[in-house]
Amino acid sequence: MTASTTPSSGKQIRVFSGIQPSGAFTLGNYLGAIRQWVAGLDKKENFFCIVDLHTITVPQNPQDLLHRTRKMAAILIACGLDPQKCTLFIQSHVAAHAEGCWILNCVTPVGWLERMTQYKLKAQQQESVSTGLLDYPVLQAADILLYDSDEVPVGEDQKQHVELTRDIAQRFNNLYGETFVVPEPVIPKLGARIKALDDPTSKMSKSKAHIRLHAIRLADGPDEIRYVIKRAVTDPGREIVFSDAPEKAGVNNLLEIYELLTGEQRDAIETHFSGKGYGYLKQEVAEVVIEALRPIRERYLALIADPAELDRLLATGAERARAVADPKIREVKRKVGFIVTE
Ligand code: TYM
Description:
This protein is about 50% helix and about 5% strand. The protein is mainly alpha-helical. The relative contact order is 0.14. The two termini are about 40 Å apart. The mean pLDDT is about 95. Helix 10 crosses helix 12 (about 280-305). The structure holds ligand 1. Ligand 1 binds near residues 18, 28, 191, 192 and 204. Ligand 1 binds near residues 19, 33, 154 and 157.
């Protein structure tokens, strides 16, 4: 496969994305983000980060966080993120992320953060809102900008944060001279917003994946997948068609999952389900999901059984990430007028 390059410089396109080790990894994360990450592995230079610093912006149980972080690494590798082909690492292993966040904080007006949709949503759910939660998008900007990233593949819900990253990069460049690449968000045409199975008006979310009927978790076995999809919220009608109508959101979501996993055309899918009932649709979707997740689940179980090997892979990833992020943070420090000794 040929490598993708940027038109201006001819250098290989650099990709950065991140995922929080919060809750259980869902089918939404897989279809909305990770499948794209895997698809770009042979064409671009890729950095993928498990963002534990972001996760502690809302209260966490330390033991749970530790287990979830390793599980997330195992699941990402099981999904196809081969650590030989990309740099997969944990955010807190690379100190430049926190340092970069601090410096970027000092060029980011607080008003830009107060209007972030995710901040407003998450703040409503907290008894006490941490400063970290407000600052969350600046840390995300540091993640992306430290790697001179050209592209940031994300689901729809992260678009606003990537746009803020662009604003922060431009502001820093205006104040201190050309320093950061201004990155582009890359949102998939399909699957950018997989809906919750228990409420197709909202997105399927890792943080709600403990609610049994909310999501398919990537480590779920066949019986659980059948159980949850069978109970997915639909509508009182009978028509199995792709539709933007709010009342068809449940059926549309199931059809989108089917489309993404089978790769079939929409008209062929509608013909396949024509005259059938929702029970049949759910059975078919469940079987397609089970087959897609089976190899991922098997690889995941093998990887999680060897935590020492996972830690070794993550340490190698962190070393490769530091080789890029450390020189960049030194450049940033020089630009703002700090004495940089090494
Ligand atoms: P997070 O951990 O919530 O989600 C990881 C990725 O999965 C996508 N996603 C979805 N896509 C489709 N349908 C869904 N229901 C769905 N739920 C989640 C998200 O859009 C995301 O791409 N703030 C980020 C993590 C982050 C990051 C970064 C991302 C930190 N630093 C730098 C990109 C670049 C987050 O919380 O993602």
